[in-house]
Amino acid sequence: MNRRRCAAAAITVVCAVTLLAVSGTAFAAPTTAAAPAVPATPSAPSAPEPGTPPKKSLEAIRLELEGLYARATSATDAYNLAEEQTKKQSAEIVRLAQAIVKGQDRIADLKARAGATARAQYRGGGLPPEAQLVLTDDPQLFLDGIGRFRQGQKATKDLMAELTRAQDDLEAYSQAASEQWTKLEANRVKQEKAKKEINEQIAAAEKIEAQLEKAERERLLKLEQQAAYRAQSTWLASGVLKAAKGGASAKGREAIAFATAQIGKPYGWGDEGPDSYDCSGLTSQAWAAAGRAIPRTSQEQWRLLPRIDIKDMRPGDLIIYHGDASHVGMYLGDGSIVHAPRPGRNVTIAGAGSMKILGVVRPDK
After folding, report:
1. Edge-to-edge strands of the sheet including 357-361?
2. Cα–Cα distance, 164 to 98 (Å, whole number)
3. pLDDT confidence bin for 261, thresholds 50/70/90
4. What is the DSSP-derived secondary structure letter of residue 242?
5. Is 267:278 a contact under the CB 8 Å cutoff?
6. What pLDDT is recorded for position 39?
7. Is 327 a catalytic residue?
8. Is residue 46 classed exposed, middle or buried when 0-12, 13-18 and 19+ CB atoms within 10 A define those classes?
9. For 44-91, how does the pLDDT look when each residue is reduced to its tens digit (9 = 90+)?
């Protein structure tokens, strides 16, 4: 009987130890087989697993998000440029196709006329009627025939020259269309690559933000605002605006009116309104509303529009930001701009010096 009781106790202890091991809770080993299991004293939280990165500070997260959105903005400019070039190339291909059709019709007409001349020569024994008149014994008819013969020769020569030109033009149109098609396809590849880059960067940023608690997101927004405020204060303290007192032009006022009317609308990469805008979509549409067509992208606006010294800038001018000219805002005066900041933000007014300024351009100079 004692042996049975000992065996039963041993089995009970083994089962208990096995169950506790499976649950992942650590207990001290019993001193004897029959002794009851005594729970261990609760210990302090365990240290992070080796190799686990420490949790990032909100400031580090802010800088990481800033980098992700900056790369998305750069890719957006590349996408917009490729899209603009694609539109132009598509229009050029259409124009060339129409020219090719006209050229083919022209060649068909010239060949028909040349064929009619050849048939007339055949019916006249190899000579056109004008040449046959040269053989007449009538002096007046002879002189008239000579004149018509020379006219016929010139007409035939001109016809053949025109046919040659038409064929050369058709070949040139076909070659140009082929080149435009190659460029079109290359820009479509660029568009797709830029689109992929944009979506990847935005998705990465959104994933980071989604992992934050509401309170953390609120503090993150305050950090963004504080960083912008520090940059703006430093910029204003430099005295850069002391000489910038010019008033907006008539067209500049129209552009400003359009841009400020979009405040509150969401940022949308590649968008030109009317419901959402990216940074250069806003500025290009604002100036289009003022009757001045300007390049679509911030990089092209920086490259092609007249540059202005910052001390001479006036409301309506465009301020280009970052070393790669990937962002643009419209100057409103008093050190402020209206712009479409980035994905997840709305068109708003901000400090003109809250970002790194590359330079200023004037659309209506």
Report:
1. 307-308, 357-361, 318-321, 327-333, 336-339, 348-351
2. 19
3. very high
4. S
5. yes
6. 45
7. yes
8. exposed
9. 444 445 555 567 888 899 888 988 988 988 888 888 888 888 888 888
Quote the pLDDT of residue 54: 62
**Do 134 and 142 contact (CB within 8 A), yes or no?**
yes
CA atoms 360, 278, 303, 232: torsion sign: positive
Residue type, 162: E
Count of other CB atoms within 10 angstroms of residue 175: 11
15 is catalytic: no
Helix (H) or strand (E) holding 100: helix 58-123
146-164 mean pLDDT: 65
Residue 54 in tokens: 């420490």
Exposure string over 290-304, b if 16+ CB within 10 A, otherwise e: bebebbbbbbbbbee
Confidence (pTM): 0.65
Q: Looking at the DSSP assignment, which residues form a beta bridge with residue 348?
A: 339
Rounded CA separation 273/286 (Å): 10
Q: Rounded CA gap, 38 and 25, in Å? A: 12
Marked catalytic residue, from 6, 15, 279, 322: 279
pLDDT at 152: 57
The yes-or-no verdict on residue 8 having pLDDT over 70 is no
* Residue 339 annotated as catalytic: yes
Sequence-distant (6+) residues with CB within 8 A of 171 are none
> What are 268-324's pLDDT values in tens digits?
999 999 999 999 999 999 999 999 999 999 999 999 999 999 989 999 999 999 999
Counting Cα atoms < 13 Å in the Cβ hemisphere of 52 gives 7
What was the pLDDT predicted at 124? Answer: 53
Q: How far apart are CA 19 and CA 10, in angstroms?
A: 14
Q: Give the type of residue at 61.
A: I
Q: What is the sign, positive or negative, of the torsion defined by CA atoms of 344, 339, 284, 189?
A: negative
Catalytic position from the list 6, 15, 322, 339 = 339
| Closest among 297, 321, 245, 238 to 81, alpha carbons compared | 297
Encode 112-146: b = buried (16+ Cβ within 10 Å), e = exposed. Answer: eeeeebeeebeeeeebbebbebeeeeeeeeeeebe
CA 353 – CA 341 distance, rounded (Å): 14
